[in-house]
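Why should sequence recovery work at all? Because a backbone constrains its sequence more than one might expect. Tight turns favour small or flexible residues, buried strands favour hydrophobic ones, and helices have their own preferences. The token representation captures these environments compactly. In the example below, the structure is given first.
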């Protein structure tokens, strides 16, 4: 479990990797919240391009990022989501709360 992040023109991009389950979700939640608090971006983009699996813990990562961005009146965007995580997000209704964009490749 690792991720990279960068800030450009008020957009914080966080590229997540691997499987997001209960083993790593707490770390992701804390790290993303810390980045949002430190940089106060206008937009936070969670890039799921290299994520192969999510369960309900992945939903918690997204919801917590959404809360953090709402507190600073920013926007959360998800991108690069492959089939399995997309099924989980659609089943949970995340796709109705957060904008989902296709990855730019």
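From this structural description, the recovered sequence reads:
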């Amino acid at each position: 479990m690792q991720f990279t992040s960068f800030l450009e023109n008020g957009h914080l991009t966080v590229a997540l990797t691997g499987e997001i389950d209960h083993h790593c979700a707490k770390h992701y939640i804390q790290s993303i919240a810390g980045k949002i608090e430190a940089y106060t971006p206008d937009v936070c983009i969670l890039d799921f391009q290299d994520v192969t699996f999510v369960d309900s813990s992945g939903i918690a990562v997204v919801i917590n990022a959404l809360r953090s961005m709402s507190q600073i009146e920013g926007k959360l965007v998800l991108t690069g989501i492959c089939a399995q995580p997309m099924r989980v997000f659609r089943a949970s209704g995340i796709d109705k709360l957060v904008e989902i964009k296709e990855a730019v490749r």
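A few observations help interpret the result. The chain has a mean pLDDT of 94.
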